[in-house]
Amino acid sequence: MPQNKRESLIYTVLMCFCMVLWMSMYNVTLHMGGFSLEVLKEGWLGFPIAYVFAMCCDWFLVSGLAKKFAFTYLVKPEDSVLKKVICVSCSMVVPMVLIMSMYGAVEGCVRSGAWSQLLMIWLTNIPKNFIMALPFQLIVAGPLVRFIFRSAFPEGKVLA
């Protein structure tokens, strides 16, 4: 886990990149009815704005609230690092899925003009995104980003 603000920012940049790219491809695949080169193109074209939005939401809103929730209600300072990581990750995924599902719904309404469907699109996006985001975060993205992060920045090497 990151030890200071600089490490936290670097970790967030890496994690957001991984999660937003994967979830963008997943959502475009769902929307287009299957995976293809067109999915890769559409997902990649929509990625930069979604990434900036997700980074801002994560850094300025969700991260602090999720950590506060996790360390207030789910874990104690003496708990294992693994338990802390899992609890913070789960606490981050829930609000990010809610926010980014709304982002996707708004993006869909901008493209289609079907603003009357915004609430329904958002509500149907939430479970679809949650069932992909949580396992992906816990099983793939989290371990991968932690490995890359600690390989590039061994503990105590990034100064506060």
Give a quick set of tags describing it.
DUF2798, transmembrane helix, 83% helix, 160 residues, membrane, DUF2798 domain-containing protein, 4 helices, transmembrane, mainly alpha
Report on the architecture of this protein.
- By secondary structure, this protein is mainly α.
- It has one domain.
- The chain has 4 helices and no strands.
- Helix 2 packs across helix 3 (81-112).
- The mean pLDDT is 94.
- The chain crosses the membrane at residues 9-25, 45-65, 85-106, 126-149.
In short:
The protein has one domain.
Tell me about the largest β-sheet: none
Uncertain ranges? none
Quaternary organization? single chain
Overall structural class, as computed from helix and strand content, comes to: mainly alpha
The general outline is: globular
- Say how many strands there are: 0
Pfam families: DUF2798
Protein name: DUF2798 domain-containing protein
InterPro entries: DUF2798
Keywords: Membrane, Transmembrane, Transmembrane helix
Write the layout of secondary structure elements.
Elements: H1 5-32, H2 37-74, H3 81-112, H4 118-152
